[in-house]
Amino acid sequence: MSKLWLKSCPRCRGDLYEEPAVGRHHFASYYITCLQCGHVLTDAQESLLTGRQSRAAPQPAHRVA
Ligand SMILES: [Zn+2]
Q: What pLDDT digit, counting tens, does each position of 23-34 carry?
């Protein structure tokens, strides 16, 4: 199954779709790419789009109380 985000490309405002990435990135099961310009979203851009946690999330900053 794949998802589609219309007019969501950060580069050209094109349509993004989620594509399986089996065998391409061992750390990811999918990647999101643009139909119009072929731009592949970074982890950060994916997180913004999907609301999912970034796979490579940095350590949370410790609050100084
Ligand atoms: Zn694009």
A: 655 555 788 999
CA of 37 from ligand 1 middle (Å) equals 4
Q: How far is the CA of 54 from the centre of ligand 1 (A)?
A: 21
pTM over 0.85: no
Domain-embedded: residue 40: yes
Write down the H helix ranges in 1-53: 43-50
Q: What distance in angstroms lies between residue 8's CA and the mean position of ligand 1's atoms?
A: 8
The answer to whether position 37 is within a domain reads yes
Block residue for tokens 């490579």: 56
